[in-house]
Design brief:
Distance between the termini: 20 Å
Organism: Mangrovimonas spongiae
Shape: globular
Helix content: over 70%
Number of strands: 0
Number of helices: 7
Strand content: under 5%
Low-confidence stretches: none
Protein name: Rod shape-determining protein MreD
Keywords: Membrane, Transmembrane, Transmembrane helix
């Protein structure tokens, strides 16, 4: 149990620092920016305390906001992604989620990809909707959401492949 807590704490700190020190400075073509920190939300264990998970997701977004000076948009987006995660898990994994038998290191790649795409799109839509905050710029919001999501999903999948342990 202690090893599990230290592993998630380490993941939390590394993802916040990686986002703040490296990824926030990537601004490809003016509107493509990866948000790899949502990997913490995506890979958090399913059976753990839901309130703790929501609180940690909020803190994750808040720390990214503090380092990015973004006024709370990442905290709102991370909390939204964490709150909608059970619905996304049920959509992506079906009966495996109902019986709490999902282990992210043993599930099939297609279901994992659907899960990551859905979670990332929801997160990014909230981030860019709050960033732009003008319905007249809906095409800009959708463009930023789509292209940043593609970049984030590629980085997320590569990170999972590189750091996954095959047993």
């Amino acid at each position: 149990m202690n090893n599990l807590i230290s592993g998630h704490t380490l993941r939390f700190v590394i993802l916040v620092l990686l986002q703040a020190l490296i990824l926030n400075h990537i601004n490809f073509l003016g509107y493509i920016n990866p948000y790899l920190y949502i990997l913490f939300i995506a890979l958090y264990p399913i059976k753990n305390n839901r309130f703790l998970f929501l609180f940690l997701s909020f803190l994750l977004g808040l720390f990214v906001d503090i380092f990015s000076d973004s006024g709370g948009i990442h905290a709102a987006a991370a909390l939204t992604a964490a709150y909608t995660r059970p619905i996304i898990l049920k959509f992506s994994f079906g009966a495996a989620y109902e019986h709490q038998t999902i282990r992210f290191n043993t599930i099939e790649f297609g279901a994992l990809l659907v899960y990551l795409i859905t979670l990332t799109l929801i997160h990014h839509l909230v981030v860019f909707s709050l960033e732009v905050f003008n319905i007249k710029n809906i095409l800009l919001i959708l463009k930023k959401t789509l292209f940043s999501s593609i970049f984030t999903i590629i980085l997320t999948v590569l990170t999972i492949i590189i750091f996954s342990r095959k047993r």
